[in-house]
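Z., the sequence and structure:
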Amino acid sequence: MTLRSPKDIIVATCGAVGRLDRTVVGAVSALHTRWPLMDRFAALLADNAPELYALGFIAAWYGLDPDDEAGRESIVRSVLAGASAVACARAIAQIAPRTRPFATSSVAIDRLVNHRPSDSFPSTHAAGSVAFVAGLGGQPTALVALFEPLTVGVVASRIYSGVHWPTDVVMGSVVGLSVGAYTRRAGLPSLRLLSVLITRLTPLLD
């Protein structure tokens, strides 16, 4: 049995992953136009995720009991986790550029949303979405119940809409989970101060 070098193993692994990505994207492209309602819903999630999360945060912030300091800290932590995860994903994209599925000549898939052919890996949408949920740490429960299915939908929609490869969203999710977990465990001392400051600047909570 011939032992392969680490370089050969890496090349073979990347080739296998690439083939899997193309297979999944090809299967997804075959579904386009079959279910117009799904196409529209996926496009909505893929193209408007930031706005949907923003609405969720605003509704939760105003819906919380003004004395619920822990809940407000969770929201602030979640926002910081999401923003940090997106920044990390963008930094990785500078190191490992990758062409998006709809811009790849070897893949026949139509994008469902308007998107420029920028770097695809990793998915910043997946990183931010997963970090939002991971950063909440289970509180407030109403926001977690909203964001968990929303995140699954957003991550899936980025693949379905043709703007990301499956491995893009997997890596983005790993980044989001890591950053979200860190923000929970780090016990950032500025979180309480920041949440109190935002509360005082939010007159409708008085």
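Residues 54 and 60 are 10 Å apart (CA to CA). The helical segments are 6-29, 36-63, 69-95, 124-136, 141-160, 166-186, 190-200.

Let me know what you think.
H.
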